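Hi Y.,

Following your request, here is the sequence exactly as I used it, all 317 residues.
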Amino acid sequence: MDYSQPTTPTKSSYRDSLKSMDTEEHIDLAFYRPIGYAWACLAARLGVTPNAITIASIFLGIGAGVAFYYNNLFINVIGMLLLIWANSFDSADGQLARMTRQYSRLGRILDGLSGDFWFATIYVAICLRENHTSAFFMAHPWLIWVIAVVTGICHAKQAAMADYYRQFHLYFLKGEDGSELESSSDLKKKLSTLSWSRNFWQKLTLSTYTNYTVQQEATAPAMQKLRKELSVRFPAGKIPQQFRDAFRKASLPLMKYTNILSFNWRTIALFTSLFLTMPWLYFAFELVVLNILLVYMICRHESICRKFTQELKDGKF
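Below is the corresponding structure, written out as tokens. Let me know if you'd prefer a different format.
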């Protein structure tokens, strides 16, 4: 969704800066969203774009990761503050985009990549730190790197699916204009119209985003069958409100899991491991706790989608 004419935020637009009360987390509502809104209002007055805020957050997050390399609690706390600052910017860029309607696919990609840069730096810092401070990992220096790579792959899948289920929920709650849900088939059609010689950066960006979407769809086959059934029965996209309400009610309990798989609970685990001077525990948290939640969430959501697909075929809606 692209809008060429941004609008000016007003004092009453704080609620408009939120995605939805269904998908917002308590920590975000109490802390990050108010701070993000203040940043967004300041950025709007200064003419700063959402993408510029996102890029700034990348540098802050990388700085936080570097600080976690040191086996020094004071420096680690500085890193924690930098990471909190980075996430307040990450909140602000989305809030500013919603308030001023400066949406773009590039912005969505940058927003996703920002977290990848943060945590890639954090993972490297933890590995280097453990190989210098832990007797076990000093004796087996390769092991922490293997754990980090596996954890990073799991992290990417966890974040991607949490975002995908959240966007699917928003699609039924707010419709196409309130969701960033896309189809890989539509993206591939757009990709085929671009030339590597004439549209190199645009094609590279869209290729990356298309591959990301393909991976999301492959992990949720029942959801794809439901989307196909909806497109056949309601080709104009006019899904009955009764169906939207029913799906939202079934999907809503899963939104808390999408939030746990996002930023806040990760950082709570990360900060706890740093205070305990055992940063490797953060990898254990992602590999065990968050992977269990991911599998549970996928199974539950796929079951919901199969149920609604069958009800559509049975003519309930």
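The chain is about 75% helix and 0% strand.

Thanks again,
Q.
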